[in-house]
Specification:
With about 475 residues, this protein is an alpha/beta fold. Helices cover about 35% and strands about 20% of the residues. The protein folds into four domains: about 150 residues, Methylthiotransferase, N-terminal domain (Rossmann fold, 3-Layer(aba) Sandwich), CATH 3.40.50.12160; about 110 residues, Transcription Regulator spoIIAA, CATH 3.30.750; about 120 residues, Transcription Regulator spoIIAA (2-Layer Sandwich); about 55 residues, OB fold (Dihydrolipoamide Acetyltransferase, E2P) (Beta Barrel), CATH 2.40.50. The strands form five sheets. It has a six-stranded parallel β-sheet, sandwiched between helices. Bound molecules: S-adenosyl-L-homocysteine, iron/sulfur cluster and FE3-S4 cluster.
Length: about 475
């Protein structure tokens, strides 16, 4: 079956599920989607909500009033998994009070066989568990369960064709996600993602452009291209274009909007990409480029395929070329075998680059990854101390960086209400958040703002 037929088949299941659900619940049923993890999951959840809408459900934020509850899970660190188990546990009482509700667990954590087995055994009130590559079959799963079928466990991960044209119900009205690729082939030794998301698969150029056009026509002003490694876009497809070219093509679409993207991998980051960010008016001045560690010895053991020198060359070039660039990064502290000397290399890189902001994590062993069986003699407490040292250094840098915005004028997309009465808030083309006088009528609009001061928040006046 081709992907168009698959989508049509799921559409037919959705209609049948809608009729069954209405009959069973005797009212329009409600569905609650609870999302953990990264933007990929947030984006997947928008597609889950699209399918649920087709299945006749309205979407609610309140789990207590829902007839269908789904947890879209993350497996990247242990803490993420613990939170999910706690949340699934709370549905036990709901299900007891009302056995007709359906509870589902999907996403990265659900993809792991050990997790699916544990749920099968210890969480009998969970009706369905399915993995990341079969989410498009949700209408079929609902139909089968509603018509009395047994519990569903489907962890198929065959890296097949991407199923396009799924229904979607976006969370936002002017900021939106646009996935350009799925999965990851990099196998960084600490990371579970390649095991739970499968091989890297790029979407077809025409599908991406069509979705971008749809979003622009619907009024989206801030579009974030998503993928675990966006800058290796195109690998394995016959479209013959790379990520920089994709950016140029989206930049050339008509309309007033902004393009963001994440995540880029330093090994695939080229001067061509940096020049493209510089040259394309709609591509934002933000580069999220995770370096993970400043020590070459640790980078090798992480299987990252770049070294400190190459990383610094790239970010220095980016800073030279792109005025007002926001540089952000991810860092892991306490990778197995990391010494305080290695950690100091991370700290010195942070001080040298002066990032706008950082996402910092203490290493969390993930079963099945190579790092999980590496010797790890440093205690959690010691790692905690290094972590605090890093946070403190970054706090000072961020404080200095934020002052640099004073006196500058930016185009700001108004995206939320401000912290004070009568003020609205928005982002510049980078990651700076600026507040200015205004009302809700400005939401989703671009305004030109001159930054005057910093007082916990950047304050400016609309020009
Ligand atoms: N594909 C992206 C990010 C994926 S996960 C990239 O390559 O950068 C997001 C971040 O979680 C990673 O950048 C890393 O810093 C962190 N991370 C991944 N696995 C981890 C682990 N086992 N322990 C702690 N942090 C981890
Ligand atoms: Fe994980 Fe590395 Fe892939 Fe990022 S690039 S998702 S850190 S394996
Ligand atoms: Fe988590 Fe999966 Fe994203 S493991 S970080 S939700 S790709």
């Amino acid at each position: 079956m081709g992907t168009a037929e698959i989508t049509a088949e799921q559409g037919a299941y959705a209609e049948r599920a809608a009729a069954l659900a209405l009959k069973l619940y005797q009212k329009t049923p409600k569905a609650c989607v609870i999302t953990f993890g990264c933007q990929q999951n947030v984006s997947d959840s928008e597609r889950l909500k699209g399918m649920l809408t087709k299945c006749g459900y309205t979407i609610t934020e309140d789990m207590n009033e829902a007839q269908f509850i789904i947890f879209n899970t993350c497996a990247v660190r242990e803490h993420a998994e613990d939170r999910v188990y706690g949340n699934i546990g709370t549905t036990k009482a709901l299900k007891k009070a009302n056995p007709d509700i359906i509870v589902a667990v999907c996403g990265c954590m659900a993809q792991r066989q050990s997790v699916a087995d544990k749920i099968k055994q210890s969480y009998p009130y969970v009706d369905m568990v399915f993995g990341t590559q079969v989410q498009y079959r949700l209408p079929e799963f609902i139909y089968k369960r509603l018509s009395g079928g047994k519990r569903i466990f489907d962890l198929t991960l065959d890296n097949g064709e991407i199923i396009e044209d799924q229904p979607i119900k976006r969370d936002g009205t002017f900021k939106g996600w646009l996935p350009i690729m799925y999965g990851c082939d990099n196998f960084c030794t600490y990371c579970i993602v390649p095991y739970v998301r499968g091989r890297e698969r790029s979407r077809e150029l025409q599908k991406i452009l069509a979705e971008a056009k749809e979003m622009i026509a619907a009024g989206y002003k801030d579009i974030t291209l998503l993928g675990q490694n966006v800058n290796s876009y195109g690998k394995g497809t016959d479209c013959g274009i790379n990520f920089a070219t994709l950016l140029r093509q989206i930049d050339a679409l008509e309309g007033d909007f902004r393009i963001r993207f994440m995540t880029s991998h330093p090994k695939d980051c080229t001067k061509e990409l940096i020049d493209t960010i510089r040259d394309c008016e709609k591509v934002s001045s933000h580069l999220h480029l995770p370096f993970q560690s400043g020590s070459d010895r640790i980078l090798k053991r992480m299987n990252r395929h770049y070294d400190r020198k190459k990383y610094l060359e790239l970010v220095n070039y980016a800073k030279e070329q792109i005025p007002d660039l926001s540089l952000t990064s991810d860092i892991i502290v306490g990778f197995p075998g990391e010494t305080y000397e290695d950690f100091k290399e991370t700290l010195s890189l942070v001080k040298e680059v002066e990032f706008s902001s950082l996402f910092t994590f203490i290493y969390s062993p993930r079963e099945g990854t190579p790092a999980a069986v590496m010797e790890d003699p440093v205690s959690r407490e010691e790692k905690g101390r290094w972590f605090t040292e890093l946070l403190k250094a970054q706090e000072e840098i961020a404080e200095r960086n934020i002052q640099k915005h004073i006196g500058k004028t930016y185009r700001v997309l108004c995206d939320s209400v401000g912290s004070k009465d009568g003020f609205m808030s928005g982002h510049n083309s980078g990651t700076a958040v600026i507040e200015f006088e205004g009302d809700k009528g400005l939401l989703g609009k671009f305004v030109t703002v001159k930054v005057n001061s910093y007082d916990g928040v950047l304050l400016g006046t609309v020009e």
